[in-house]
Design a protein that fits this description.
This protein is of the alpha/beta class. The chain contains eight helices and seven strands; from the N terminus they run ααβαβββαββαβααα.
Length: about 210
Amino acid sequence: MKLIKHFLSLLFPSKARKEAAEKTPVMKYLIVGLGNIGPEYVGTRHNIGFRIVDALAQSANAQWEDKRYGFVARMRVKNAQLILLKPSTYMNLSGNAVRYWMQQEKIELQNLLVVVDDLSLPVGTIRLKQNGSAGGHNGLKHIAQMLGTEGYNRLKFGIGNEFPKGAQIGFVLGRFSSEDESIIEKKTPVCADAIKAFALSGMQFAMCNYNNK
């Protein structure tokens, strides 16, 4: 009889265990992919942030909704709720969307992660950071301005810097080569895993396990 009871307890969790699971707090995270809206910007280097959060949403069959200041999708990873955001403000005013959705969802600063392209990194290089300067990136600059701090998490994705002097704008608004595209396809799922690791285990864990992967 004891063996039967033990077997049944394994198959059917007790009411107490169910209640404990239901009481487990759900942490909310705002994951912001930076980019520019419009078909002319789809697939450009400057829109890699959009591309990464799109892949993350697709992995959970999360649907995008057209909301104030951006497109929003929601997904759950264990006890973490990820609110994905693609600002519709254009890159230079990204901070408006970030600040609004942080306030709307009551997201704490440490639970914000901004996914952004980086010219200083080779194509496909992943670099998670807890703070830092905008490095000339107008999207990051405006977010810092709106939040009043540069101390927010970001996931930087290298797009390379193979362009002649004075041709930076054309480069970031251009599209990846076929060779670079093969790298992007391999690294995009790694970025999705890094974002999940950030939400579940913290930024330090994510940095240690995914930087330069």
